Amino acid sequence: MRPELRRCRMAEGCMMALRYGMVFFNLLFWLGGCGILGVGVWLSVTQGNFATLSSSLPSLSAANLLIAVGTIIMVIGCLGCVGAVKESRPLLLTFFILLLLIFFLEILSIMLFFIYQDEIDHYAQRDLKKGLQLFGTEGNVGLTNAWMIVQTDFRCCGVTNHTDWFEVYNTTRVPDSCCLEYSDNCGLDNPGTWWTAPCYERVKDWLNENLVALWIFALCTALTQILGLVFSMTMFCQAVKVETFYA
């Protein structure tokens, strides 16, 4: 067998293995995006703007975030899958560039978060306190439900203190979700019957307690993206070599 023919067959075999690997990888990627998008749509339909705590960014809800992330993952997965099946160099290169851009943006976001952590803490607390003013008002069901769930689940009251609610009601009162034992209008009772722990610190403590799980998730996500980058660029280069060989 001529060496050129042997190399050609080896190249074709590598291309086939890479193609199947890319298709399988991006199919999982696409299905994951479909799942995230489905959960986001379900939350949007059934819960409104669930988990909207920010007053300055009302669109920053759990439903909208899941819909955006799911859509992006679906589009990128579709690009990679079609590019692998058709061995399209433009699609493979587009997939690689988009995935690389997202990867760098994630790294940049993490770096900026640690550099400006104190400023982010200050801004977040100020924005959350501002959002308390919208609690229970018309058109802010998502924010109201989110605060009720957070205070009940984390056994806390207010952003930095239960007195944050005094400015909202203009009296010594808190929402009923702040009560040690829930009952209608229990927020009007003695302060000794309310949770006093700050919700902001409680949520931060919960994140710190689950830091290992969060880092494992981040590393798995990074590894998946790196594999996608390697697969796509290797297949792109191999496609160029095969095309050059036949030319």
Automatic annotation (TrEMBL):
Q: Which domain of life is it from?
A: Eukaryota
According to UniProt, the name of this protein is Tetraspanin
Which Pfam families does the record associate with it? Tetraspanin
- GO annotation, biological process: determination of left/right symmetry; Kupffer's vesicle development; localization of cell
**SUPFAM superfamilies noted in UniProt:** Tetraspanin (SSF48652)
Q: Name the membrane topology term.
A: Multi-pass membrane protein
Q: What GO cellular-component annotations does this UniProt entry give?
A: plasma membrane
User: Which InterPro entries does UniProt cross-reference here?
Assistant: Tetraspanin/Peripherin, Tetraspanin_animals, Tetraspanin_EC2_sf
Q: Which residues cross the membrane?
A: 20-45, 65-85, 92-116, 212-231
**Cellular location(s):** Membrane
Which cysteine pairs are covalently linked by disulfides here? Answer: 157-178
UniProt family annotation: Belongs to the tetraspanin (TM4SF) family.
Q: What keywords are assigned to this protein?
A: Disulfide bond, Glycoprotein, Membrane, Transmembrane, Transmembrane helix
